[in-house]
Task: structure prediction
Amino acid sequence: MSKSATVERDLLVFSIWAVLGFGGLALILEGFSRDSYMISLAGTLTIVAGFVAHIVVNGVFDCGFRPGEAALGIATFGVLALAFIASWSVGGLSQTDYWSGLTLFALLAVGLPAYLSTRYGLRGAFSRFHVRHADDGKPAA
Result:
């Protein structure tokens, strides 16, 4: 990819997450503060829309997620999961907050296999994780 195409892609991805990512986070936090599942759900769907828009940009520029983007996504998911579990364990979540968090994590967990299967196909997605070694007694593919 050329330098100008890389800069364009980076600006698009930054713009997407600046609007949809932070907007979705604001809606989720507002839903938590008002104890409203519908507002939190709107935030969750906004974040999912950001993820889909990022995938579309990657498709337009014929590339995948960069290692830094993937690391940031996994780290963010881990920190959010840890905060959710800590809040749940000390009893700091209302029923609405609990279901809002579960909805967010369920949609994000479904998003990873959906992305892999659309990007690489079902067989290719499995091959991204499964590495066959030459010394396992089976002929190498």
About this structure: The longest helix spans residues 95-129.
